[in-house]
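Most newcomers find our protein records easier to grasp once they have seen one. A record pairs a protein's sequence with a compact description of its fold. An example says more than a description, so a record of this kind follows:
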Amino acid sequence: MRESTEKVSRMEEGRIDRTRFRSQNRKMSEPVKELRVEIKGLMLDPSSNVPIVILRDTESQLFLPIWIGLSEANAIASRIEGIEPPRPMTHDLLRSVFEHLGGEVEKIVISDLKESTFFAVIHVRQGSRPVEIDARPSDAIALALRVNAPIFVLRAVLDKAQAVDLASQATDEEKLKKWLEEISPDELGKWTM
C-alpha cells in the first residue's frame, strides 16, 4: 500500500509540474508583452551564406535578424513574391490541415531565445478552444504568411537578443544595426530561389 501511495504521490507531483509549466508558457505570451513585427526582408549572411529573415518592430523600428534554413527561406520568399507552387509545399499543407480541422491560426509569437536558438508558438483557435503549438520561428513565419496571421515577438526576446549580441561582439552588433538601418528594401528583397 505504501508503494502505491508513493507512486500516486509521484504522479501528482508530475501533474503539478506540468501545470506549472503550462502556466509559465501562458505568461510568456501575454499580449501586453508582445510587439508586432513585420518582415523587412530575406538575405544571405555574407560570411556563412546562411539565410536570414529580418523582422522589424513596427513601433520602435528595432530589427531582429533570425538565421534560418534554406527550405524555410524559400517557403517565406515564395509567399512574399506571390509564387504559387504547382503542388502544396509543407506550409501550404499545414494551412490546409488547420482549415479542414476547423482551426484558425490567430497569430504567431517568437517566444524565447535560449542558447542562440529562437523559439516560437503558433496560436490556434479550434472552435472556442485556444491551442498553442511549439514551432521553429521560420516555420511559424512561413505559416503566418500563408494564413495572413500577425507576427509578434516578446519584448523579453528582443532584450535577450540584444544582450547576447552586445555581450559577445559589441562592435559587430553596432555595425549590424547601422547596416540594417541603411540598407535599402531592394537590397533586402533580392532573394533568389
